[in-house]
Design a protein that fits this description.
The protein contains three helices and six strands, in the order βββαββααβ. By secondary structure, it is an alpha+beta fold. The protein is globular, with a radius of gyration of 17 Å.
């Protein structure tokens, strides 16, 4: 089990500490919800976690097969709705090396689609994922 602690700093800012490493990140409420939008919002971190988890999960599995993902990247666009305020959709685009063999691509895509963050999301949340093999 990994623990984090969150301390409210005032003015809708929080500082989060990852206990095992001591790494820290900070959050702010978004401009459209009484914040200044100066930092990641908590829901922004959900989107960032999705991209990071997909890339990490693909790397864990594919590197065992000698497939290198260095240089791969993800973009995640978050769409919010109200009543209740929540994330309705995370549009994920993964940019992967062109060197990944065509016969391996479905396998690596399955790794991304089975990442723990995606598996933890509410079934009502839409999570379309596009895979682009465009990294030289």
């Amino acid at each position: 089990m990994v623990k984090s602690t969150t301390h409210y700093q005032g003015e809708k800012h929080c500082e989060i500490t990852h206990e095992p490493s001591g790494a820290r990140i900070a959050t702010d409420a978004p401009k459209d919800n009484h914040g200044k939008g100066e930092l990641f919002s908590p829901t922004d971190l959900v989107g960032a976690a999705m991209g990071s988890c997909m890339l990490t999960t693909m790397a864990i599995h594919s590197e065992k097969d000698g497939i290198v993902l260095k240089g791969a990247w993800a973009s995640v666009e978050k769409e919010m709705i109200a009543n209740p305020r929540r994330i309705a959709k995370l549009n994920v685009v993964l940019h992967l090396p062109m060197s990944i063999p065509h016969d391996y691509r479905k396998k690596i895509e399955g790794f991304a689609l089975g990442c723990p963050v995606k598996e933890s999301m509410h079934p009502d949340m839409q999570i379309p994922v596009l895979f682009h093999y465009d990294i030289a």
